[in-house]
Amino acid sequence: MSQPLHVTTPLLFSSALSEQLGVQVWLKMEALQPSGSFKNRGVGYACQHYVDNGAEHLLASSGGNAGLAVAYAGRQLRVPVTVVVPKTTKPQAIKLIEQQQASVIIHGDNWDQAHRQALSLKTARCAYVHPFDDPLLWQGHASLIDEVIADGLTPEVVVLSVGGGGLLCGVAQGLLQHGLNRCSILAAETQGAASFCRAIEANQALTIDAIDTIATSLGAKQVSQQALAYSKQLPIRPVTVSDEAALRGCFDLLEMNRVVTEPACGASVAALVASAKTLPPESNVLLVVCGGVGANIEQLWRWRQQFTEK
């Protein structure tokens, strides 16, 4: 396989969060990937594999971030890309996908409906790049842990956001590959998209009734089976937070690190803040700043105003 399509991202120590919470907080800055999110890792890896094995067209379904990562990969690999997005996708995300010379089809009220539409378009020469449920994705996302270990950090806790479970599976795979099977994972979701929490409670990957959250990138109604399987190999704990708490997490990252992220990413900050007292004092905590292109500073301020008026 040729040069990876993702970049090595900074690992930054957060003095502000560390002093506030009593643990050693390290930020893995995935918001600085070329497409703005961690998706570059697994999606890039999968796209390279498919093109190397003969794919002439890449097809994706996404609320934004995975679609943008596929569009970016397709442009780098010089193959056409079609992305099916649901109606809830932000105009800015669609614009960014189109700027990568990909075709965008708007279909359905949620990701599940866009996913089914995308599958109906698949042909023999077209590779479908799933946004979270593909072993190739997990292998690509596992490179995040490779980089953290190479930087000299051995995390005792990893905090990350969970939508369909692709990032969770990749991080879990990376931890196991490095023998870190005692490292715990706090899996953050918003209350209106808590499919992983429901899967843990039921011990099976059930479908939640609806998605009701500003963190639309977490909007998978059912997590992958592998995400649930990893919960039996590693100490993984789901943490659900409110939309308002996730938004506060976005503003924390904005103020501390001058980076704009989606509420799907801010949920991880909120989960860490809510869970800090349950963690061993001074433990090394890796917070994955997963990024996201579904929000800008104006949108964050509009959401804040909505919560202020309630």
From TrEMBL:
GO biological process: isoleucine biosynthetic process; L-serine catabolic process; L-threonine catabolic process
Cofactor(s) required for function per UniProt: pyridoxal 5'-phosphate
Segments forming domain Tryptophan synthase beta chain-like PALP: 7-291
EC number, as in UniProt: 4.3.1.17
Pfam families: PALP (PF00291)
Keyword Lyase applies: yes
UniProt catalytic activity: L-serine = pyruvate + NH4(+)
Keywords on record: Lyase, Pyridoxal phosphate
InterPro entries given in the database record: Ser/Thr_Dehydratase, TrpB-like_PALP, TrpB-like_PALP_sf
GO MF annotations, alphabetized: L-serine ammonia-lyase activity; threonine deaminase activity
Domain of life: Bacteria
Family as reported in the entry's similarity comment: Belongs to the serine/threonine dehydratase family.
PANTHER family in alphabetical order: CATABOLIC L-SERINE_THREONINE DEHYDRATASE, THREONINE DEHYDRATASE, MITOCHONDRIAL-RELATED
Protein's recorded name: L-serine ammonia-lyase
The organism of origin for this protein: Paraferrimonas haliotis
Taxonomic path: Bacteria, Pseudomonadati, Pseudomonadota, Gammaproteobacteria, Alteromonadales
